Amino acid sequence: MRIEIQLRIVGDDDSVISTDEVLHFDKGDDRLEAIGLSLSDAKAVLAGIQERVVTAQAASFLARHRCCSRCDRALLSKGPGRIQFRTAFGTVPLNSPRFHRCCCQPSTSKTFSPLGELFTDHTAPELLYLETKWASLVSFGLTAQLLKEVLPVGSTANACTIRRHLHKVAARHDADLGGEQLGSLDSGPGKGQPQAAVIVGIDGGYLRNWYDKKRNFEVIVGKSMITGRNDRYFGLVVSQDEQPNRRLAAVLQDLSGTPAITMLTDGGDSVRALAGVMAPGAVPILDWFHIAMRLTGLGQYTRGLAHHNPVEATALESRLERIKWRLWHGDADEAVTRAEQLAADVAALDSRYPKLKRLAKATAGLAIYIANNAAALPDYSERWLNGERISTAFVESTVNLVVSRRFAKKQQMQWSKVGAHRLLQTRTKTLDGTLRDLFSTWYPALAANDNQVPALAIAA
Ligand SMILES: [Zn+2]
Question: 20 to 30 A from 427, CA-CA: which of 62, 71, 134, 287?
Answer without folding.
Answer: 287
